[in-house]
Amino acid sequence: MQNTILVGPMGAGKSTIGRLLAKELRLPFKDSDKEIEQRTGASIPLIFDVEGEQGFREREHAVIADLCRLEGLVLATGGGAVLRDDNRRALRAGGRVVYLCTSVEQQLDRTARDRNRPLLRAADPEATLRQLMAVRDPLYRCIADIIVETDERPPRLVVMEILDRL
Ligand code: S3P
């Protein structure tokens, strides 16, 4: 059984949608960030503080490589998982890739009260999200089998569309 892998920016709803989708498909749900936290016993912000983004990306790569070798999972990935080409190859080979496409406005809305995202500690989170999107949107698109719009749509509707198109 193929994996279903969710990619997209912070605030796209990957964890919420992934959990619902896994329930519908009766498959286990994994979240690469949670897996990193379990393996290290440290939160993502602490890993960024101690090891920097580079250290986090190494850990993220190890987790993605391992999880993509498994079968029959729904996997939510961190927003920057597509940055490395070895990750993109692993994700492509690891299953059906679903890009949860989301506007910066919606991302801002969904991440506003969340302190768990070190990249959004910057003075201007909107500018940060726009810069990240400019670089990453083409990368999400280039590995996606399915692109699903999430703006102004309840997670259940997004899940139904993914189920229809898988
Ligand atoms: C990141 C997104 C986060 C997390 C880390 C870095 C990014 O995951 O992996 O803070 O580079 O966009 P979410 O996309 O689940 O917020």
TrEMBL record:
Gene3D superfamilies: P-loop containing nucleotide triphosphate hydrolases. Its cofactor is Mg(2+). Transmembrane segments: none annotated. It catalyses: shikimate + ATP = 3-phosphoshikimate + ADP + H(+). Its EC number is 2.7.1.71. Mg(2+) binds at S15. It comes from the Bacteria. Pfam families: SKI (PF01202). GO terms for molecular function: shikimate kinase activity. ATP binds at G11, A12, G13, K14, S15, T16, R117, R153. Monomer. This is Shikimate kinase. It comes from Stutzerimonas azotifigens. The lineage of its organism: Bacteria, Pseudomonadati, Pseudomonadota, Gammaproteobacteria, Pseudomonadales.
